[in-house]
Amino acid sequence: MERRQASKFYPHFNQEERPVIDYFTGLFNQLIFKHEPILTDFLDPGKRAILRTIVGNDAFVQEYGGYPNAEKKRVYLSEEWLNLRPSDYQIQPYEIEYPQKFTKINHSVILGTLANSGIDTSIFGDIITDNQGKWQFFTKEEMTEFFEEQIDRIGRAKVKLRPISFKEVLVPEDDSIEKTKIVASMRIDAVLSGISRQSRGQIQKMINSQLVKLNWHEIADSNIMIKEDDVLSLRHFGRILIEDVSTTRKGKYKVVLRLWQTKKHN
Fold first, then answer.
1. What digits encode the pLDDT tens for the residues 92-118?
2. Residues linked to residue 231 through DSSP beta bridges, in sequence order
3. Among 107, 150, 141, 109, which Cα is nearest to 123's?
4. Among candidates 71, 40, 68, which has minimal Cα distance to 55?
5. Contact 123, 140 (CB under 8 A)
6. N- to C-terminal Cα distance for the chain?
7. Which of 98, 101, 146 is nearest to 124 (CA)?
8. In the 3-class helix/strand/coil scheme, how is the chain assigned residue by residue?
9. Whole-model pTM above 0.90?
10. Which of 68, 71, 76 is nearest to 31 (CA)?
11. What is the pLDDT along the chain (266 residues), one digit of tens a residue?
């Protein structure tokens, strides 16, 4: 195997991704020089796609996020195939204990608390719920002491973080809904305008303010064309998976999508 050059992969991704490309290229080069497996932080699907592109067929890429269908996962890179167990990914699941009778917490409040605790968001994985008031999240094993000592309040709720086993991890409820929308154009501003009922001008302002992501990457261009299997994220609105696109007799586009709508704060 030969050393990778990061610049080779620049044309495949947006310019904003170059620091990520540089980092992952360095990881791959470290793997082939030291011949030791590498375990990454929690990576979203967009970053994992970049890593797989760089690695190609020259190493084994295995991933796990703490439960089936996790969005953020740790990736295990190795030159030889290894039969990995969940424990090999060094993930600690936590349940958030709080007085459910007297207060409520939600995903955005939990995320805000974790993200503002002084650590990078790659240190922790998904935040999941059973929609009955129970909340759990995943973090790197080596950070357990930090979380248990630093996080004692989420929003207005006094909390205790209880480490749990993988057997206690919830099966998250899928609260997505399927919708069909007719849009005039497959430009990202037109698609999001049609789905969110905000004007294209408002959507363009949100794109300029980096409140819109495409396939987990921030974008700065309203002219990007959307296609099937793209995942869009609009801050304070939700996440959208484009499932099917077809044209109507009048030359418009019929878009079948799955929407995970952001929960409003109580």
1. 999 999 999 889 999 889 999 999 998
2. 241
3. 141
4. 40
5. yes
6. 54
7. 146
8. CCCCCHHHHHHHCCHHHHHHHHHHHHHHHHHHHHCCCEEEEEECHHHHHHHHHHHCCCCEEEEECCCCCCCCEEEEEECCCCCCCHHHHCEEEEEEECCCCCCCCCHHHHHHHHHCCCCCHHHEEEEEECCCCCEEEEEEHHHHHHHHHHCCEECCEECEEEECCHHHCCCCCCCCEEEEEEECCCEHHHHHHHHHCCCHHHHHHHHHCCCEEECCEECCCCCCECCCCCEEEECCCEEEEEEEEEECCCCCEEEEEEEEECCCCC
9. no
10. 76
11. 778 999 999 998 878 889 999 999 999 999 999 999 999 999 999 899 999 999 999 999 999 999 988 999 999 999 999 999 999 999 999 999 999 988 999 988 999 999 999 899 999 999 999 888 999 999 999 999 999 999 999 998 999 999 999 999 998 877 889 999 999 999 999 999 999 989 999 999 999 998 999 988 888 888 999 999 899 999 889 999 999 999 999 999 999 999 988 876 44
Tokens of 118: 């002084």
